[in-house]
């Protein structure tokens, strides 16, 4: 008895499989869209990082707090930064001392200039004296030449000493200016350890705790607009040619499975990520006040490419090899030209008429 029932069931399914489902083209509105996935983030969302490593000394806000521009978010203490400030201060004070007119360096060079000048003046007078003696035949030509040589040497030495004074003074002034700038930069870095908000918004995340060691590679906080959100989508590289700004988007959010949300493309990044072969797209999203959104929520999106009214369509499953259909009357296949298509239907541009009955492959 069980064998008869089993055979009957097999025959039933076999006979059903032999039946060919049929359809005819119908006119309906069809929407072409491409799929994308992404995350929701606050508008103007930005990550807070430390410029230099240190310890979190004080966190001034809590997750969910509203913040204003310039409001302190957290304070970081760094022994390295304090030591750098102290070193820069010492170098600045040393440069300030060295550049003073009575500094040991300039005083020594000034003594060299004074000595060279005295020698030059003495040799100049001596040379003049030998010139006058030579005119009266009271000195030989050799004595005059020797006096001239000493005069020229002392003149060059005086010029060298004076040039050394000028160049050393300029160098010391430059070193002073550089030391001052370095000291100001290190002091500014120390001030940067009180990290303040750069916008009016809301704190969405705080990563470290007070007392923890942080560095410039670790995100400290996430801050963004407190009222508006935007979506970052990843679109497959095979679909990016269809994208245009202001195209309509229909979203679904896992947390609100029974609702759909709308938005528009705001920005298309002209670059393909080589890891996942996608392009980044930033889009708006319209949200009701009753919708509670968390930064980083996942979304699925259908980007509307075009909508065609009253198109002649057939179900996708009636396509053979994606470009042919089977006519019931002729029991043959015929090539068709496709137009707009979505997940369910394909527009027929040419190849069959509205009354043509088709068999499902």
Please give the alpha-carbon distance between the first and last residues. 36 Å
The biggest sheet amounts to: 6 strands, antiparallel, barrel
Overall number of structural domains: 4
- Taking pLDDT < 50 over at least 5 consecutive residues as the criterion, the unreliable ranges are 1-19
Count of DSSP-assigned helices: 4
Strand content: 35-45%
Oligomer: single chain
Shape: elongated
Give the rounded overall mean pLDDT: 88
Helical content, roughly?
Answer: 25-40%
| Class by alpha and beta content | alpha+beta
Q: In order across it, which strands form the biggest sheet?
A: 2-11-14-13-12-15
Radius of gyration: 43 Å
Order of helices and strands: HEEEEEEHHHEEEEEEEEEEEEEE
